[in-house]
Structure formats: structure tokens, C-alpha cells
């Protein structure tokens, strides 16, 4: 149910905890600011970020949340995330899997969907819909080549088809887009 195995994920982080230069890339920093600006509210009670990596996006979003939980498959990334957001909770989870318990009102999927396969995407969408039907959902999707079996636009389309929620594009940039659902009534 995952398109990328743990060995490949570990290899991505073999040279350090910032393989995509999240800390130093002006592009990545702009994307993090755009992600924060795409949120529909100023404050959230509890957020869950799938594929949190080294916590650099969490640094931008956690200040808006009373509680912040991130999950990732790679321990070196989680160690960096814990340093980036010391008050956050970061757990090792190899997706798709049961997600950590919580009363999340914000769920973030930033550039994670194309690491899964079709069944994994369906599994995550179903779980989110079932467990957190009223949570705001934010999807950031890289539209360039992913290097994986699924490309970003295809993975996002699969997620949208599997979810009960209606995602709306709130930001298009080259080469990414941000989609959001608002809190359901």
C-alpha cells in the first residue's frame, strides 16, 4: 500500500536531516508561508501533519495550534522535527497505517500523497473521513516529477476521488498547488 519502501526513505535522509533544503531554500520557505496563508482560520485546537519530515513546515504552523502532532517514517527526520518544534509530538509511522489518536481540527498532507500507492491513498482518505469528519484538511501537492510511481496531480486526484470531502484549490503556484476543505458544519 506504499509505493516507496522504508529503505528508499532512509536513503533520502542518508546525508542529513534536510534532503530537500527546507531550511535554506527560498522556494521552500515561500511555499511554507503560502501554506500558512492558505489556512481558513487563525487558530486550531489540534493539528496532525502526515509526512512531517524534519518539522520545517511544522515550525510555520504549530504556533497557530494548541497541540501539534506530526508523523513520518524516518527517525532522523523526526529527531529534527522534535528540535524544530520542541512542544510538538512527533511519532514514527510508516504510512498507510493507523494514525495517532487525537481530536484534530486540522490535518495537513504536504507533498506526501505521491509516496503512497492507490490503495494507500484510499486508506488514508477513508480513515481521515471516518475519524475526523469535521477537520479542516490542507493538501500541498508538488506538480513536478516526483520520482515515484505516482505523480503529484495523479495522487491528489486519487485522494479527491476517495474522500467524501470537497477540496478547493486555494493557491496555484509553479510547480505546486494548495487545496483545502473547510470545517464541515
Task: Give a quick precis of the structure.
This protein is an alpha/beta fold. The protein has helices at residues 6-12, 26-37, 56-61, 75-84, 118-131, 152-162; strands at residues 44-50, 65-72, 89-92, 106-110, 136-142, 168-173, 176-181.
Q: What does this 3D model show about the protein?
A:
By secondary structure, this protein is α/β, with parallel strands linked by helices. The chain has a single domain, classed as Vaccinia Virus protein VP39 (Rossmann fold, 3-Layer(aba) Sandwich), CATH 3.40.50.150. 32% of the residues lie in helices and 23% in strands. It contains six helices and seven strands, in the order ααβαβαββαβαββ. Strands 3-2-1-4-5-7-6 form a seven-stranded mixed beta sheet, with helices on both faces. Strand 4, helix 5 and strand 5 (136-142) form a beta-alpha-beta unit. Helix 5 crosses helix 6 (152-162). The longest helix is centred in the last third of the chain and has 14 residues, at 118-131. The chain is globular, with a radius of gyration of 15 Å. The mean pLDDT is 93. GO terms for molecular function: S-adenosylmethionine-dependent methyltransferase activity. It holds the Pfam family NodS. This is Nodulation protein S (NodS).
Amino acid at each position: 500500500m506504499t509505493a516507496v519502501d522504508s529503505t528508499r526513505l532512509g536513503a533520502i535522509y542518508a546525508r542529513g536531516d534536510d534532503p530537500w533544503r527546507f531550511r535554506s531554500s527560498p522556494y521552500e520557505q515561500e511555499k511554507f508561508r503560502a501554506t500558512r496563508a492558505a489556512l481558513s482560520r487563525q487558530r486550531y485546537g489540534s493539528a496532525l501533519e502526515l509526512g512531517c519530515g524534519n518539522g520545517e513546515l511544522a515550525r510555520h504552523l504549530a504556533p497557530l495550534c494548541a497541540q501539534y502532532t506530526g508523523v513520518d517514517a524516518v527517525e532522523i527526520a523526526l529527531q529534527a522535527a522534535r528540535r524544530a518544534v520542541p512542544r510538538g509530538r512527533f511519532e514514527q509511522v510508516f504510512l498507510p497505517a493507523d494514525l495517532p489518536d487525537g481530536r484534530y481540527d486540522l490535518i495537513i498532507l504536504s507533498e506526501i500523497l505521491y509516496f503512497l500507492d492507490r490503495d494507500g491513498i484510499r486508506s488514508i482518505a477513508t480513515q481521515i473521513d471516518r475519524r475526523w469528519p469535521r477537520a479542516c484538511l490542507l493538501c500541498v501537492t508538488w506538480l513536478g516529477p516526483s520520482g515515484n510511481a505516482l505523480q503529484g496531480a495523479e495522487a491528489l486526484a486519487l485522494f479527491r476521488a476517495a474522500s467524501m470531502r470537497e477540496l478547493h484549490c486555494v493557491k496555484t503556484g509553479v510547480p505546486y498547488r494548495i487545496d483545502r476543505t473547510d470545517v464541515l458544519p
